Amino acid sequence: MTSARFVGRSRQLAELEAALRDAAEGRPSLALIAGESGVGKSRLADELVLRARETGVVVLWGDCVELGEGELPYAPLLGALRPLVRDRDPVLETLPPQLRAGLDSLLPGLGTKMDPESAAQARVFEGLLALLDALGEAEAPALLVIEDLHWSDSSTRSFLSFLARTLCRERVLVVGTYRSDELHRRHPLRPLLAELGRDPGARLIELPPFTREELGEQLEGILAATPDPGLVERLYARSEGNALYTEEILAAGLDGRGALPPTLRDALMLRVEGLSSSAQELLRWLACQPAADHELLVQVGGLEPDELLDALREAVASQIAVALPDGQYAFRHALLREVVHDDLLPGERTEMHAALARALEERISFGDSGAHVTAQAAHHWKAAGDQPAAFAAAVRAAGAAERVNAFAEAQSLLERALELWDRVPDPERLAGAGRVELLERAASAADSAGDPVRQEAFLRRALGLVEESDDDLRKVRLLHALANALWHLNRQDETFEVLERALALLDADEQSRERASLLGSMAKKRMLQARFGEAERYAREALTVARPLGNREAEARALNALGVAMSGQGDLEGGIESLRESLAIAREHGLAGEEGSALLNLADLLNMAGRTEEGLAVVTDGMVSAPKSTHRTTGWFELMISEFNFFLGSWDEAVRHIPAPNSRHYGPTLAYWYTVRSMIALGRGDLATAAQDVDGLTRALRGSTEPQFVAPLGIFASELARRRADFEVARAAVDEALDQIEYCSDDFIRITALSAAGLRVEGDAGQVARDRRDPEAEEAARDRAERLLERVQLAAALGGPVEAAEQATAEAEYARAVGDESAGLWSAAAEAWESVRRPYPVAYSGWRRAEALAAARDRDGAAEAAADALEIARGLGSDWLAAELESLVARARLRVDGEEPGLTNGDEPGEPDDPFGLTERERQVLELVASGATNREIGEQLHMAEKTASVHVSRILGKLDVRSRTEAAAVAHRHGMAPTP
């Protein structure tokens, strides 16, 4: 009852074929096909695959499995790639050994010896990407199709997120299908869809139901004849254009006149009930096991070999079941499987799941203990209601998920086991571990899966269980882990309380590895708070303990904190040397997390010292080792590359490296993500996005005491308010940030930058106060500017070239705030920023210099400064700054690039016209208005009646779009249309 003709969907198919052509030309993308159940998503994907194979495209196909969230990691990827291993595809041999090792955790049989480092999830992702890239290097691109993403596991979703932000020039197209009618508000696929929706390289293709005409074509393809119009109308009324529903109703009766089944399930069951009893029995087993090979069906089905083959042929011939390329059998459509499974009696369902679990247990006992088999067994024991078996299977499956770094799945399975702990006899024997150990494993999985709230809950529960024991070392280990969880939740005061509690459990006179590790953590966290003196003290104490004991991890961590602390106290070269020593230890001993942290901090020190290009080289080279680091470290590499590219003026590259939104971004990582996004949005002038990201940063920093985030929040919030001319809000943002960091940290570079941002606000406030002739507001701006400038000068005195550039800018802003001539100061600021290769503040300084020169009637100098700044602003993509410069050029009648603004109103050639449309007489009147002359005084000087002068002033106010003579004077002064008084 399936149409041999491909009906409708021509536009959607054309879009997919266009995406495939783009992939062939090195423009990879992801395409998602969405629609309700049975609407034809799989048929569209089938047609694309058929046409792709005709052109030589390498096609990989995998299906997500409905076993519940957090059970079966990488299910569709395993199905897609298994044929490559089975057929010994030569492309596998072309991959570097370390990437093949990563794939071996998914595809046992590659013959590569796997080490734990290679199995890190990011390394697995890199291996998969390299494999897709290699497959696409042939004459045609590679096509990966993943069906039923609404059932996708966390690891598969993470891989798709990885592809979305990583694909660059690979000749790859990834197509996914999902049921839009199953995505409830909290469905785990929704965050990924939102992320892909913001990706310009992703395509979302919505499939609507068939129209009447298309349904008629479908029926003609099925019946091989033009259908009766009445039949079309009846089926359209019943199916509402759903392709699968139409097929099933027609299969129940070719005239379509039978009683309308009350639900789709009834219609589908009519097909199944028409089969032989053997075929129905076979389908019941397949309903419990989404895909089963012949051996499994022989083992559990209870059918004789010939009877089983006949049943399989009948099920496949009736198009209810299909034979998959990997030798397994499954339902043709998931809806059919759901209907059959729901039709099972409760006892029947329990017995079948138990039988399948026992059959899989046999495979596990013979060595097939991979994540997929163990997860399936755990699922079946749970469905069978056998709590002891479900408990043991969940623990075992969690271990298999941990081995392939499928942390979300491991966490889910361990939570299931912990829920069953009190319901099963002798749980320690069944689990092979105690409850505290399972809680520790669950906490570790939650940490890696980006769930610090659950991590804290697991650790506190474990601490409660060991509170009365004498096992102080276990308590120390749990408290140390709890401190890290609290830090990521921005509960930093509690973090130090917990670390002190852990230290108190250790003998003060005994030097131990645990003491060294705790002291190293204290040093690292005080360093992050920019309390550099304390950080150095803890770091040196940690080194004293760690070195004699050979605790190289604690030593590397302490050296890391020491390096940043030394630099923060003025010893840059000593700090760099300490960080390089930390990096060498981490690399020598395979400490991936410490290696990543040392690289990041080394790059950051170089950047803050004005050596941003060196820092970018460090962090870019570090990306080579990032895949074997933690997900947080990997995210920080990308964000730091984005930040440094912004500073250096490569804004498109900066945007490209911002990681997509991810639930695993939390705590400091989430704060850094919002920081970089806010910076870029403000730089470009996208205030709506900037406001959203500043709000996100505010939420992410609630309770944080880290100056590296608190200061940027103050800067961004004040800048956002400044551009909206809301000076009180801008001032409050600066004051609040200064209050948080000034008296509890030694972060002079950020105090300098934050105070300079405050002076930018006062520059605007002072200028507006003078424009409005408001002496009280002008005095307030002067007082605040003086206090802020003093802060800048004190903080910058201990810094390097970046602090010097901030100070030069602050001094120019101070001059603007108090009304002094500032063109020379802005030149000095631009030169200071040029020395550290930061074009954005160079352009900003050029704008302010051009303003100052225009106000001083130096139009040639103003034009030159404006032209230089405008070129930089346009090259960066700073729309707001370019607009400000263009406005200045127009209003001050500056000659830029040798062009005149335009000629009207009878001006002689060569005389620049006023963009406001003022006549020569009105310009004369405006100059006198700007000097403070009354209408009577204007009339006397220009030999006109006072009433005529009043008419001229009214027209000028209208042309300038201002409300008062004071505002008109301000426009004239600011744009060089009148001498500065």
CATH architecture of the domain at 10-208: 3-Layer(aba) Sandwich
Strand content of the residues, in percent?
under 5%
Biggest sheet: strands, sense, closure? 5 strands, parallel
In CATH, the topology of the domain at 10-208 is named Rossmann fold
Low-pLDDT runs of 5+ residues are 111-119, 901-913
CATH class annotation of the domain at 10-208:
Alpha Beta
The residue fraction in helices comes out at 55-70%
Please count the helical segments.
47
- Computed structural class: mainly alpha
What are the key terms here?
981 residues, mainly alpha, Rossmann fold, 5-stranded parallel beta sheet, 3-stranded antiparallel beta sheet, 47 helices, 8 strands
SSE topology sketch:
Layout lengths: L9 H15 L4 E7 L5 H14 L3 E6 L11 H12 L10 H8 L16 H15 L6 E6 L6 H13 L5 E8 L10 H8 L4 E5 L5 H12 L5 H11 L3 H10 L11 H10 L3 H12 L3 E2 H8 L3 H13 L3 E3 L4 E4 L2 H10 L2 H20 L5 H14 L2 H17 L3 H14 L6 H5 L3 H15 L2 H15 L5 H17 L3 H13 L8 H16 L3 H18 L2 H17 L3 H17 L3 H17 L3 H11 L8 H18 L2 H6 L10 H18 L2 H14 L6 H17 L3 H15 L6 H24 L3 H22 L4 H18 L4 H13 L3 H17 L3 H18 L2 H13 L28 H11 L4 H8 L3 H15 L4 H10 L7
Parallel strand pairs: 1-4, 1-5, 2-3, 3-4
Antiparallel strand pairs: 6-8, 7-8
Helix pairs in contact: 1-2, 4-5, 8-9, 9-10, 10-11, 11-15, 12-14, 12-15, 16-17, 17-18, 18-19, 19-21, 21-22, 22-23, 23-24, 24-25, 25-26, 25-27, 26-27, 27-28, 27-29, 28-29, 29-30, 29-31, 30-31, 31-33, 33-34, 33-35, 34-35, 35-36, 35-37, 36-37, 37-38, 37-39, 38-39, 39-40, 40-41, 41-42, 41-43, 42-43, ...
